[in-house]
Amino acid sequence: MSGGSEPVPVREADAEFQSYVRMAEALLFAAVEPLDEATLKARLPKGAAIADVVDALMRSYANRGVNLVEVGGKWTFRTAPDLKYLLEFVQQEPRRLSKAAIETLAIVAYHQPVTRAEIEEIRGVSISRGTLDLLIEAGWAKIAGRKRTPGRPVTYGTTEAFLEHFSLKSVDDLPGIDELKATGLLEARIASNEALDESEDGAAEVRAAELPLATGPDAEG
User: Fold this and answer.
1) What pTM does this model have?
2) Residues 106, 145 within the same domain
3) Shortest CA distance to 132 belongs to which of 154, 165, 110?
4) What is the CATH number of the domain that holds 132?
């Protein structure tokens, strides 16, 4: 017998590993919402390497009619982007957002957590309460907390549903300013470098100035 160890078999060829992949596939296929790592870990046998299982499953579906994608730190099956046109006849007619709502959503996404006053300052015009209510009703925006400033104003941020709808892993995957301006989603005055190009230090200051939502009688405001 020659010296040296025998080649280690590829993990994907291991029968036990493949059984984990099949289990994860069944769970993700049946789920009505994206599943996170903790949920998969709780359902799969002890010792299953979730990251490896999901990676193998994603590669297996990479060139299929449906793909396994990550949205908001969770995984779900989605129709392959180039085949979405086949399903257009079953899609509901989306409700069109007003220009004010689109601009407000963009500001919330890029500046979160952000207050109503800050949104109005960036837009240069006031916004009606109905605009933010519409975004919250759509499930794309939420009340994120309160700022450590006089009056403790409410701040707003985006939701997991926002990430899922726009197929984003996180807000870090938001398109750049030039892309937004090209699609007409942002007016030039809103997409200026001064308005949207915040430094990391500035973002840290905003986060540090935030309070969690109050749960007592003074929670309204």
Assistant:
1) 0.47
2) yes
3) 154
4) 1.10.10.10
